[in-house]
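lol ok so funny story. i was supposed to be doing the assay writeup but got distracted and ended up predicting the structure for this chain instead. priorities right. anyway since i did it might as well share w the group, maybe its usefull for someone
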Amino acid sequence: VAQTNGPNGMVVAAVVLNEGYVIARGWTEYNYVAYDVHLWSAFEKHDAAKHALIEAVGSGPGKSSSSYRIVAGGMFGVKTWKEDAQNRGPRFTRDCERPQTPARDTIMDTNSINTILEDSMALIKDDDIVVSVICGYESESCHSMDVLKKHSIVSEVVPIWTCPGLKESSGEEMADCRNTILNSLMESVQKSNKKIRALVIDPTAPFPMGQIVHKIFSMKAYRIKILTDDIMVMAPMLDPSEDWRRNLMDRFRQEIIMNEPVFLAQVLFNTTDASMELAMTSSGDAHFVKHLKEVTTSIEKRSDSQIVSDVRNTQGGLFTYQENFVPTDFYLPDAYDQSSPMEQYMSQKPVGHQTVFQLEVQEILRVNDIVEALDSGVFYPGHIAGVNDDGSFYVKYDDGDEDEYVKRHFIKKVSSNNLEDEDDDLSVTKIETTLITTLSSMETTLVGISNAEVHSFTDMGDGCLLVALWSSGTLSVLWDGKVHVDLNFFTYTENEAAHNEFQKQFRLAAPALATVLHDEQPRGYGRVVNFQEDLEEDYLEEEEE
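and the output, tada:
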């Protein structure tokens, strides 16, 4: 494919190969050529192709050239997929991960569990603290409570017993249980005039109690009234299948505490024939990792213990925002030699505007679709009752409850009775029709685009490549044959609004597609990294000064 009617006699050429495509744009006025090289096969030849193209126009080492790389979609069904699989990515040469100690099948004895819990309290560097223990039913033993009552740093233990019949309870009974627990915690704080420093989820506590704990402390008002600023949350795990305990600790780290210093840790403790995992979240201790190492070493060294520890995971939180931060030193730009960067900055000559939109098929939710929506860590069945302008959904649950604003990523589609769903699948015909429709709709925004010369290539894999060339720009549309579409949109003039409008119109014509990545950059010579609009703004500011 070739075209020579760009503005001011500029030359455009597109070459399509089995392995990918190359688009070349030449500005004879500036003695400048820009290449787009997109390979979906023979990846190992990418650098060689780049160097060959640069040398072909008289450039090369020691001369002016620059490049950037974007990871984009490819093509399924190419004949060389086996060779590509061998050549793609870094080589795996050796296992850098140390093998993890396997968990034992037998549950650890009570004495060892108590030892681990007792010594782990050394992670709390305070005295005279209040601890709340989430226990099972009152008819069961709550060993965590018994251990902590005897601990030297604990002045009070607040037991929270599981509400009777909670496992079989309805949503209304869950709410009643949550209110009962909340009242107990509030009464304890008011009576002792001391907030709770630590929470321990006893192994007997069932999953619904974890939901209730999360629900209560997700509310900032209750969190402030009940918990100290720095807290420790522990969840001993005797059954490896109880993932909810790990998840609850991570929810405390991500949603309840969030800001550093906060740490999540998962430690596996093994004896010769049994195992136990301790998941925990700690806030306020900047040296938590060091203290965790000291505690696990102490547990292993106990004379009455044959316990071996294995720290499986540690994660931190978000950086703490310092509202009134005062720097020790303050440097102005004049403190640095800016002659070289300024020389490069002023040498830039943007001559084009390029945007790569990456789109993927996502399930469209429509009214009456049968769904499951996430609430407090559990998916509840229901259906879509409405679609909101902000992209959220009105969900009515099967149990009679409802939520007017549920974000898309909290919803799983189960089934649909909508006939429109049949039109969501992509095909070569669908991609071609969508492009033609979009080009026609853009004529008032980009004059001449509706008359673009469109070339379709459908024989290199399961998908297709469409190349559109017109007097003021170029476009390539790559469908991988499954769910991914790349729009490589280029115009000689900077027009961000037109680029965004194009992808909007393309998505309107193919509503199953959603934009997942958006890369925008200027094209030009002089190692260009700025758009012309940016350079002009800086020039005008200098003129005003």
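The mean pLDDT is 87. The chain has 13 helices and 23 strands.
back to the writeup now i swear
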